[in-house]
Amino acid sequence: MRLTSPRIPPVAESAWSDEQKAVFGNAKMGGRVLNIFKTLANHPALGKRWLVFANHILGKSTISVRDREIVILRIGWLCRAGYEWGQHVVIGKEAGMTDADMERIKAGADAPGWTPAEALLIRATDELHADAFISDPTWKGLAAIYNTQQMMDIVFTVGQYNLVSMALNSFGVQLDDGIKGF
Fold first, then answer.
1. Does 55 share its domain with 67?
2. Same domain, yes or no, for 165 and 110?
3. Separation of alpha carbons 129 and 159, rounded Å
4. How is residue 43 annotated by DSSP?
5. Cα atoms in the 13 Å half-sphere on the side-chain side of 158
6. Are residues 29 and 109 in the same domain?
7. Going by DSSP bridges, is the β-strand pair 32-33/28-29 parallel, antiparallel, or unpaired?
8. pLDDT in tens, 37-66
9. How far is CA 64 from each of CA 38, 51, 120, 121, rounded to the nearest angstrom?
10. What is the pLDDT of residues 121-177, one digit of tens each?
11. Which of 116, 124, 161, 165 has its CA 20 to 30 A from that of 131?
12. 163: containing domain
């Protein structure tokens, strides 16, 4: 974690206004509200609109859950977002990813064990992070595997979690109980 305490304190669920409850009341994992949502409760109008996009990326994307998690974990790693990394290690493992997968994500696209498609996802994430652009060779490789909507979902997944990583890091959102960062 980059910060040991929050710059924007989370709002306790017990102190939520009706607006905060309406926006974040169903945003629970394992029966509890995560610190990201408690922090976003400081700005419910923003949170309401962001959740629409975030829910598409996390639940309605056209790419597989494994591919999505590879992309999210890689951008979280590149952004040094300990909160994002910790949450998505759990989600990735629930989707069948292994500790070896997590280590390969850290190592990058050239790590042994990736399928060609997975290596391209990592490479695309790296390129978007470094240059806000997917190179022609990487694009062509992805386009041979993924359809247009999937290509769009790949780019928007990287962008969404780059944005979230920036917010988490800058706001100082702390790890939830039972979640490990890096």
1. no
2. yes
3. 9
4. S
5. 23
6. no
7. antiparallel
8. 999 999 999 999 999 999 999 999 999 999
9. 29, 20, 14, 12
10. 999 999 999 999 999 999 999 999 999 999 999 999 999 999 999 999 999 999 999
11. 116
12. 63-171
